[in-house]
Structure to design on (260 residues):
């Protein structure tokens, strides 16, 4: 027989009574079973990551090559004028490429036709890069959210072409780096729902001094304000609908089970 815990004897009218304290019902006991956890390697090997990769390839990058990839400049402009977001994005990719290279069509737009010896660098064309940013912005405002990150990349590419002998080189470099950083942060703000899965892929940005931090904060505030106003003028919500697959939410829950 299992011993029961008891209180001290209590004497009432010369009769000794003993109160038995019953243990709590099993369903009221705290969970004693160890929580199941998985290793980081098990998480990384989960096949649902492949589903997310395919999602990002289609939504985040160029996705499956189709007829739009093979249109010339005037045809892309015509299609973009009919609100074809993919044409807007491809125009941005091509103009950014042509700002630095001798051909209009980006190697990323038609990867299977890559003939690298045929591509030659040319003097950086800032007007061509500005065209790229315009079309990336149009694509982003119309739902292709990853185009915001491509604007950030365009500034990183531009900084490689700065004249290091210019008297204001440091000021130019600082301005371009802050813009690249601000557009990257705007992208993260737009896609904040995805950041949890991507956080282990992204390096945190370097710290800024107090003066630069204020300049950067003002720049980012203005970018967000312009984005919100432009989206509202088009009749859209302020953020882009991501249409995330079920695998995203499943992986998000699975990530919390990684052993600490």
């Amino acid at each position: 027989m299992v011993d029961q815990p008891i209180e001290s004897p209590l004497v009432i009218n010369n009769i000794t009574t003993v109160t038995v304290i019953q243990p709590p019902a099993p369903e009221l006991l705290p969970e004693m079973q160890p929580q199941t956890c998985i290793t980081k390697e098990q998480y990384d090997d989960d096949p649902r990551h492949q589903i997310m990769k395919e999602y990002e390839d289609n939504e985040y990058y160029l996705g499956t090559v189709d007829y739009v990839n093979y249109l010339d400049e005037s045809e892309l402009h015509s299609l973009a004028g009919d609100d074809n977001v993919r044409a807007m994005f491809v125009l941005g990719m091509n103009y950014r490429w042509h700002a630095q290279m001798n051909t209009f069509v980006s190697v990323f737009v038609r990867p299977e036709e890559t003939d690298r010896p045929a591509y030659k660098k040319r003097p950086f064309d800032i007007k061509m890069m500005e065209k790229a940013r315009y079309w990336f912005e149009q694509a982003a405002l119309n739902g292709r959210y990853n185009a915001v990150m491509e604007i950030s990349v365009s500034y990183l590419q531009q900084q490689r072409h700065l004249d290091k002998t210019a008297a204001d080189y440091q000021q130019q470099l600082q301005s371009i780096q802050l813009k690249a950083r601000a557009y990257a942060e705007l992208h993260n703000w737009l896609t904040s729902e995805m950041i949890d899965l991507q956080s282990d892929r992204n390096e945190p940005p370097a710290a800024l001094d107090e003066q630069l931090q204020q300049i950067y904060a003002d720049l980012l505030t203005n970018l967000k304000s312009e984005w919100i106003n432009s989206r509202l003028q088009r009749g859209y919500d302020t953020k882009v609908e991501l249409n995330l697959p079920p695998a995203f939410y499943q992986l998000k829950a699975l990530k919390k089970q990684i052993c600490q």
In short: Confidence is low (pLDDT under 50) at residues 4-8, 15-21, 28-33. The beta strands are 10-12, 15-17.
